[in-house]
Design brief:
Blueprint: H1 3-15, H2 18-25, H3 29-43, E1 48-51, E2 54-57, H4 59-82, E3 89-95, H5 101-114, E4 118-124, E5 130-134, E6 143-157, H6 170-173, E7 179-180, H7 187-194, E8 203-204, H8 208-216, E9 222-225, H9 226-230, E10 235-239, E11 246-253, H10 261-272
Parallel strand pairs: 3-4, 3-5, 7-8
Antiparallel strand pairs: 1-2, 5-11, 6-9, 6-10, 6-11
Helix pairs in contact: 1-2, 1-3, 1-4, 2-3
């Protein structure tokens, strides 16, 4: 297996959709399908079950995923180690889904200012020397450097009457339709806001980005990170009633990644900031 096959596998695994994965990788759907099929034939197992609206992952795919991510990262580390010294220091940053452009831009501006001799490469998903993501989604063997906390807010269409209410309380929220995240790590934290509706969502989503698509489509309200809602012209938001909910964003990295000089410099600088 090669890097191209592993990258294709990781993208399909994370997206659960051939079309979206192909767009991410700038490939045609037939080319991506052929790459995945070649990997399946090499391994002698089926990794994905094709469905009308996407794919389901097999148990073998679940077993392969963390190893594939680590192999991609190791390849990047080896490339960095053997580059000539006069080259720019390479730094590959993986970007988890549901990270707003504003959050990424802030980090990149700091890297550009403090580390101008760095060649930055951005890749989607769980890959790279380091990863910009949420602390709750870091792998067990990863370290985490927090950058900032971001509040969850109530997202709704700009013209929704809930925006005219002077105050919000839990009882008022119980009467609305909700877009929920049954498979997301934050689902349990959101249940108190759903109330009796918790067992009857108007729609389900596998990510905050997809949930906001559903909100724009009129399927109901959703709880989502503030930065993602702010990027939507047709959506508005307000603070959740009661205790605040936040997610912590930062840098996820394996200890081996610090062998890359660019990673060491970035972490050292962030520690001092």
């Amino acid at each position: 297996m090669d890097k191209r096959q592993l990258s294709a596998f990781i993208s399909v695994f994370e997206e659960r959709n051939i079309t979206r994965a192909a767009e991410q990788l700038s490939l045609t759907q037939p080319a991506l399908s052929a790459t995945v099929k070649a990997l399946e034939e090499e391994l002698g197992t089926q990794l994905f079950v094709r469905k009308p609206r996407g794919v389901e992952v097999t148990e073998d795919a679940r077993a392969l995923y963390p190893h594939a991510c680590r192999m991609i990262q190791d390849m990047a580390t080896l490339t960095a180690r053997f580059r000539k010294r006069h080259d720019k220091m390479p730094l590959t940053i993986g970007i988890e889904q549901d990270i707003a452009s504003l959050c990424l831009t802030s980090l990149l501006q700091q890297i550009g200012e403090k580390m101008p001799d760095t060649l930055v490469t951005l890749d989607p998903g769980c890959t790279g020397d380091i990863r910009l993501g949420c602390e709750s989604l870091r792998c067990e063997d990863e370290l985490f450097m927090p950058l900032y906390d971001e509040p969850y807010v109530l997202a709704y269409p700009s013209a929704h009457p809930i925006g005219e209410l002077a105050e919000l309380n839990l009882e008022l929220l119980y009467g609305y339709s909700w877009v929920m995240y049954p498979a997301h790590d934050s689902h349990q934290r959101f249940l108190p806001f759903y109330g009796p509706s918790a067992g009857a969502p108007s729609a389900n989503a596998g990510s905050f980005t997809l949930a906001l698509d559903l909100v724009e489509g009129g399927f109901g309200l959703a709880i989502a990170p503030q930065s993602l809602v702010e990027s939507r012209c047709d959506l508005a938001y307000r603070a959740l009633p009661g205790y605040p909910l936040v997610r912590r964003l930062g840098i996820c990295y394996a200890i081996q990644a610090t062998e890359n000089p660019a990673v060491r410099r970035l972490l050292d600088w962030l520690n001092q900031a």
